[in-house]
Write a structure and sequence with these properties.
- The chain is α/β, with parallel strands linked by helices.
- The protein has one domain: Arginase, Chain A (3-Layer(aba) Sandwich), CATH 3.40.800.20.
- It is built from 10 helices and 7 strands.
- Helix 9 packs parallel to helix 10.
- The protein is globular, with a radius of gyration of 17 Å.
């Protein structure tokens, strides 16, 4: 069967083309997925906006209420990197619900992917780094609360540390957080994940993939989760303007195949989210994100 792919047109909050965050990549990613024949226009699973009750499982209720009421202080908007408006809140709610839906589809089909998600800088009390809500944290908490899973692994291979995710799950032994990132990149002050590995600037495909193979084997010894939330940020690419690593498109494709094959061989469902990717060439970013969906489609059943 086809890979279950979750998408909502509301993921694109329609920022100006000169905004630092390449918002149009979500629309362009859906188009790239269809161009590659991975889905047709009516094949996407479309999430409804997440209710506040879901989001409050991972975030401070007072912060959630302020976001839903469009009453976020200017200092938090500055930390997030854009204004909190009806459009950006709808985007955050839909992307969050999209990861919940993708995770549920992964439990059913072995693998599923969102065309958004990976907002890992949002911590319990506030958003940051282009992240309003931490969709993976919300999804894990929703599924734990509903009894759909008893444990989860968050494998974060975005070039930036998953600091918000680490903070939210600190002390929660049901969710194991693992972050492999560029050590000298944002955020300046790192949080403590259950497993952290900071990489040196400029690491290329071969060294990265050898390192990842060792990471996956170490995680095998430490955690046997009911589901993996995989943050497949493509800001590890050598041309990314906010990354400090030097992977190629081919290296990213090999990374995705390594991750999916490792966990599917173990019989563990994988929910893929796209994470970061930054460039003025937004079409190139969208095509890079589509690598996740193309490789994941090899493992759907």
């Amino acid at each position: 069967m086809r890979l279950p792919i979750v998408h909502n047109p509301a993921y694109d909050a329609k920022f100006s083309p000169d905004h630092r965050f390449p918002m149009s990549k979500y629309r362009l990613l859906a188009e790239a997925i269809m161009e590659e024949g991975l889905a047709g226009p009516g094949d996407f699973h479309v999430p409804a906006p997440a209710p506040a009750s879901w989001v409050k499982l991972a975030h401070d209720p007072a912060y959630v209420d302020r976001v839903y009421a469009l009453d976020v202080p200017a200092e938090i908007e500055k930390a997030i990197g854009f204004e909190i408006t009806e459009r950006t809140v709808l985007r955050a709610r839909c992307a969050t619900a999209g990861t919940v839906l993708a995770a549920r589809l992964a439990l059913e089909h072995g693998v599923a992917c969102n065309t958004a998600g990976g907002s890992h800088h949002a911590g319990r009390h506030r958003g940051a780094g282009f992240c309003t809500f931490n969709d993976v944290a919300v999804a894990a908490r929703v599924m734990l609360a509903d009894g759909e899973i008893g444990s989860a692994l968050v494998l974060d291979l975005d070039v930036h540390q998953g600091d918000g995710t680490a903070e939210i799950f600190s002390g929660d032994d049901r969710v194991f957080t693992a972050s492999v990132h560029a050590e000298r990149n944002y955020p300046t002050v790192k949080q403590v994940s259950d497993y952290d590995l900071g990489l040196p600037d400029g690491m290329e495909d071969l060294a990265y993939l050898k390192t990842l193979a060792l990471v996956l084997e170490e995680l095998r010894e430490r955690v046997a989760p009911d589901i993996v939330f995989y943050n497949a940020g493509v800001d590890v690419h050598r041309d990314d303007r906010l990354g400090r690593l030097s992977l190629t498109d081919r290296g990213i494709e090999q990374r995705e195949r390594m991750v999916f094959s490792h966990f599917r061989r173990r019989g563990i469902p994988v929910c893929g989210v796209i994470g970061g990717g930054y460039s003025k060439d937004v079409e190139a970013i969208a095509r890079r994100h589509a690598i996740l969906h193309r490789v994941a489609s090899e493992f759907a059943f």
